[in-house]
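User: Sequence in, structure out. Go.
Assistant: Echoing your sequence, followed by the structure tokens.
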Amino acid sequence: VMGFIKAEKPQFDVSYAVHGESTLAINGMYVEADFRRAGVGSLLLASLAREAAAADKEIVSVDCETTNPEAYGFWSRWFEPVAWALERRV
């Protein structure tokens, strides 16, 4: 296994900012370190997009942490930002 991607109906959390019956929310993706930057993530995402279209989904969303620069670099190539989440630690 080189990696995986999983998605489901948006849950009531950060990903809920983009929700609806026609939305599929990515809630996990991982590519083994030896296979990163080889197109595996892009292939996984393309496969998921085809499955989403076949299931009559119009939107695929993902929640990405800006504190994870590698993931943010990947997701920002394929997705447009639509919401910002803020937190304050006390």
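User: And one key feature?
Assistant: The first helix runs from residue 40 to 54.
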